[in-house]
């Protein structure tokens, strides 16, 4: 799975968590943004994690 496949999965999980526990919205958004930022800065690391 490439980084392109991981990002929609992360967005889906974040959306489900926000629906289940709306109080966690700030934390979930912050974690998602950090994940997206790291994925953009270090794509080779996430490709290695995905087995590419």
Automatic annotation (TrEMBL):
InterPro entries assigned: DUF3096 (IPR021446)
This protein's UniProt keywords: Membrane, Transmembrane, Transmembrane helix
Transmembrane segments: 24-46
Descriptive protein name: DUF3096 domain-containing protein
UniProt key word Membrane: yes
Pfam (any one): DUF3096
Organism: Jiella flava
Keyword Membrane: yes
């Amino acid at each position: 799975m490439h980084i392109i496949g991981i990002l929609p999965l992360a967005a889906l999980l974040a959306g489900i968590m926000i629906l289940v526990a709306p109080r966690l919205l700030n934390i979930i958004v912050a974690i998602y943004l950090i994940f997206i930022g790291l994925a953009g800065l270090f794509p080779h690391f996430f490709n290695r994690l995905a087995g590419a």
